[in-house]
Amino acid sequence: MFKVLVSDPISDLGIQQLMDAEDVTIDKKPGLSEDELVAIIGQYDALLVRSQTRVTARVLEAGSSLKVVGRAGVGVDNIDLPAATSKGVIVINAPDGNTITTCEHTFAMMMAVARHIPQAYAKTVGGEWDRKSFVGVELRGKTLGVVGMGRIGSEVARRAKAFGMDILGYDPFLTEEKAEKLGVKLASVDDIVRGADFMTVHTPLTPETRHMIGAEQFKVMKRGMRIVNCARGGIVDEYALVDAVNEGIVAGAAFDVFEVEPPAADHPFLTHPKIIVTPHLGASTIEAQENVAIDVSEQVLHILRDEPFLNAVNMPPVAAAVMTQLQPYFELGEKLGSLAAQIADGPVGEITVGFSGDLAELDTQPLTRYIVKGILAHHLGSDQVNIINSLHLAKERGVNVVVNKSHAAKDFTNLVSVTLSSRGETTHVAGTLLTGYGPRIVQVNGYTVDVAPSGHLVFISHHDRPGIIGRIGTLLGSNDVNIATMQVGRQVEGGAAIMVLTVDKGVPKPVLAEMIQLDELKSAKEVTLY
Ligand SMILES: NC(=O)C1=CN([C@@H]2O[C@H](COP(=O)(O)OP(=O)(O)OC[C@H]3O[C@@H](n4cnc5c(N)ncnc54)[C@H](O)[C@@H]3O)[C@@H](O)[C@H]2O)C=CC1
Ligand SMILES: O=C(O)C(=O)COP(=O)(O)O
């Protein structure tokens, strides 16, 4: 039974699928402190959050069974991603479900700031009938600068057209073609700051976007600018903004998000007559909350059940169609990695993975992760390594991972190879997926073999001399180890050779030690592939 903890208010309708699942139990405990979360997280396989719960390194460290943190929303800045990656915890989000809702909130804020709606409301319900203090401006004919033209920014631009606005858009990924389609003029932040009447930011908060609208920008800003931030607190420097409003550069600002949430009681926004605020409500509609909870629940279920999943934040995205093509190779890749690690001598210095044939056409990065997982699990323990942290752990240990691709795969439609280099020694294995036969090991250290990668195997390196096969067979037989299959490979008669045995049970260590003493035998390694 999988245990899921929901630590923020998440739509019940949205998590219905999880509640209905027979293999899942859910605990809802919103509002836990970090200490309270640390105390209980060890029991859970999955954690579902919004933006409130801080999933810190301490929480992740205490989450000994945690496989996944699901963020019912977009921003994951409340989750320590490096810590999750190094712990092998998958972080997923629900990037699409709240786009329209947040775009609509941006418009609500833009119109509210243009027409002083919150200030006028407060005065009116307070008993004053003040019509002259709240003369606003139209959106029509004004220029709107959109910084960050991703999902939300693009939807804002689309709607702004309908209001008769001219739009300047800035985003490092905004192409001329996409801008033209949206009716947006490509611009720089500087163009927007100097030329727009309204500006709205829709980027994540990153070291690059932090205070991207700050004192420098306010100095050159068009007078009378109105600024909306429904993205992340800190993209606009809050204190520099207050100064700019006080100096008459900025005519009004509408903020849904703060650098620290909730803001301190004496935060200058809370009492400023020209700054309006909402308490991070951008995604708070019935529809969006249901959408994001459905999306995140679905992926969490997949992850718990070891099924393919989408929207991992701490793993580069791969198209679903590519994932489907790669999926059958994951087992082969992991087993080849494990095989290479088990037969190699000494620590791993460098890992070279090779993909040939049809595979070379695909984004094979997830398959590389499985191979590296197979290698590292042999050294670090299979509970310590997964596809989320395998590359990270390799890097942390100074192990270089090199990927080679070749469109030609001699004799095979597809070939996956793994070479481990360590102190001048190399170990090379390769495998393929044979239609109708499944995964096969087809090369070991320069010898051609054909072995199913499962169960107990013995890899023997010897000199090709008469009688060696019989001696090995006798030794195993007299120790009650039954040989299921045997393959022998040699490059020249009488030269170096290898023997690969599949045996029905593990070979006891003393028997392996005795085998190594046999004449003409160079090495014997037992390999177990689950
Ligand atoms: N207030 C709220 O309740 C909500 C806030 N958000 C926040 O809104 C923001 C945007 O969300 P989405 O549009 O869904 O994300 P998105 O990932 O689709 O778009 C973000 C865009 O920002 C761009 N970007 C990154 N660095 C940039 C830079 N230095 N300058 C200009 N553009 C840059 C990216 O290229 C990307 O196109 C995120 O920070 C998200 O967390 C999202 C939903 C609700
Ligand atoms: O999705 C996002 O990035 C949001 O900021 C929404 O936050 P929330 O889920 O409403 O706490």
From TrEMBL:
Q: What is its EC number?
A: 1.1.1.95
Q: Which CDD domains match?
A: ACT_3PGDH-xct, PGDH_4
Q: Report keywords, A-Z.
A: Amino-acid biosynthesis, NAD, Oxidoreductase, Serine biosynthesis
Coiled-coil stretches noted in the UniProt entry, renumbered to this chain: none
Q: In which pathway does it act?
A: Amino-acid biosynthesis; L-serine biosynthesis; L-serine from 3-phospho-D-glycerate: step 1/3
Reactions catalysed: (R)-2-hydroxyglutarate + NAD(+) = 2-oxoglutarate + NADH + H(+); (2R)-3-phosphoglycerate + NAD(+) = 3-phosphooxypyruvate + NADH + H(+)
Asked if the Swiss-Prot or TrEMBL record annotates the protein with the keyword 4Fe-4S, the reply is no
Family annotation (Pfam families) = 2-Hacid_dh, 2-Hacid_dh_C, ACT, PGDH_inter
InterPro entries for this protein: ACT-like_dom_sf, ACT_dom, ASB_dom_sf, D-2-hydroxyacid_DH, D-isomer_2_OHA_DH_cat_dom, D-isomer_DH_CS, D-isomer_DH_CS1, D-isomer_DH_NAD-bd
Q: Where is the ACT domain?
A: 457-530
Q: Which GO terms describe its biological process?
A: L-serine biosynthetic process
An MF annotation (GO) of this entry: NAD binding
What PANTHER family does this protein's entry cite?
Answer: D-ISOMER SPECIFIC 2-HYDROXYACID DEHYDROGENASE FAMILY PROTEIN (AFU_ORTHOLOGUE AFUA_6G10090)
Function text: Catalyzes the reversible oxidation of 3-phospho-D-glycerate to 3-phosphonooxypyruvate, the first step of the phosphorylated L-serine biosynthesis pathway. Also catalyzes the reversible oxidation of 2-hydroxyglutarate to 2-oxoglutarate.
Q: Which family does it belong to?
A: Belongs to the D-isomer specific 2-hydroxyacid dehydrogenase family.
Q: Which NCBIfam families match?
A: PGDH
Return the protein name: D-3-phosphoglycerate dehydrogenase
Origin species, per record, is Paenibacillus albicereus
